[in-house]
Amino acid sequence: MAYWKLEVEGFGKIKKAEIELAPMTLFVGDNNSGKSYLLSLAWAVRKFGDDIFRREFFRKEDDTKSDELGLYFREAIQQAEDKGSAVLNLAHILPQLEVKINQTLEIKKEQLMNMLFHSNCVSVEQIQMKVPENISGNIWINDSQGKMTASFFGIGFIEFSCNLTYEYRINLLLETAIECLLLLPSAVYMPAARTGFMMSKDIINKYAREKAFTLIETEERPASQTFSRPILDFLDVMNDLSQEQDGAGSVSGYCILYTAGNDAGKC
After folding, report:
1. Sheet architecture: strand order including 5-11
2. Distance (Å, whole) CA 170 – CA 115
């Protein structure tokens, strides 16, 4: 089975890299070689995809008439309006969809870095997504009683009003298609060989307690965020699971179920 590939250039110590985003991806290598950076970026594309790709494809109605992908979706919507239904074949739109995804990543790469590291000190020269060649499926669009519904490859479904502009409806269809193809299921970052990350929970809790009783930030103790978003997300998951009755068993069971679910749910 082929999966999406993430291509990166000029990211920390990484001059150039290509990662296949399989349901479970393990990074093994020397210390300080860029493993955490690369894995964090793969996590961020999946985790923040909803924010990055939301209504960023077509800003104006005329854009949907001059763009090949926009025109393809526009004609499908019009067909559904006229005949009650339409079918979009994924193979026909994948090349154009890949272009749109990468154009958006280029525009939003600084925002993505800020969301990932909570800082503007980390940059990336280029982020690109490469679509698997053998991926297939259909988007079914139906029009009934003033409402449209769309089913995506058997794993996604949306409903929206026919009164919305073509530009809005096309963006909505594109966002959902990308979510089903690229962003589902959700990503979990697991720093398996970094036990220090687990110990860092105590540091975060201590900082939070101090901040809770300090009303004014001072130069001696400025506001800061020591850890990147995937680490904090990982610690949140582990903390929530550790509160359950089975404790460590819940953590290990979650890892097993998540991996199995990812494998079963990947397009």
Report:
1. 14-20, 5-11, 124-130
2. 26
The stretches of 135-185 forming alpha helices (DSSP H) are 166-178
Cα separation, 14 vs 244, whole angstroms? 39
Half-sphere exposure (Cβ direction) of 192: Cα atoms closer than 13 Å: 10
**Of 113, 124, 98, 100, nearest to 8 (Cα)?**
124
pTM comes to 0.73
Rounded Cα–Cα distance for residues 25 and 10 (Å): 21
Q: Which of 76, 83, 185, 84 is nearest to 138 (CA)?
A: 76
Burial environment of residue 161 by CB neighbours within 10 A (0 to 12, 13 to 18, 19 or more): exposed
pLDDT category of residue 222 using cuts at 50, 70 and 90: very low
Tell me the pLDDT tens digit for each residue of 119-154.
788 899 999 999 887 778 899 999 988 899 999 988
> Tens digits of per-residue pLDDT, 40-54?
888 888 888 878 887
Here the tokens at position 43 are 């996590």
